[in-house]
Design brief:
The chain is mainly alpha-helical. The protein contains one helix and three strands. It is rod-shaped and about 80 Å long. About 5% of the residues are buried.
């Protein structure tokens, strides 16, 4: 992950990229609270971002699988209920 310019970090931890320091933090609203990160820290932050993105992707995938299973279970229950209703109709 490579960005043009510099990486700036607010006191609250918000990261921004650009040639100049942002005047206001969009996360906490502080004014002139950004400091330029040294190259060593930029690489570390980029690794952290990548790890966080991978974790988010994993969480999203698990949620998607759970929703899919829930939908399949619901469809199966509806099918069973429909079949039971058909059987009841034949018995009468």
């Amino acid at each position: 992950m490579s960005y043009a310019g510099f990486m700036w970090e607010c006191a609250c931890g918000q990261l921004e990229h650009g040639e100049d320091s942002p005047e206001e933090c969009m996360k906490c609203g502080k004014i002139n609270s950004f400091v330029k990160l040294p190259e060593e820290l930029i690489e570390e932050r980029e690794r952290e971002f990548t790890e966080e993105e991978l974790e988010l992707d994993s969480v999203r995938e698990v949620k998607k699988q759970m929703q899919k299973r829930k939908a399949m279970k619901k469809a199966k229950m509806q099918k069973t209920q429909l079949n039971n209703n058909k059987k009841k109709g034949r018995k009468r």
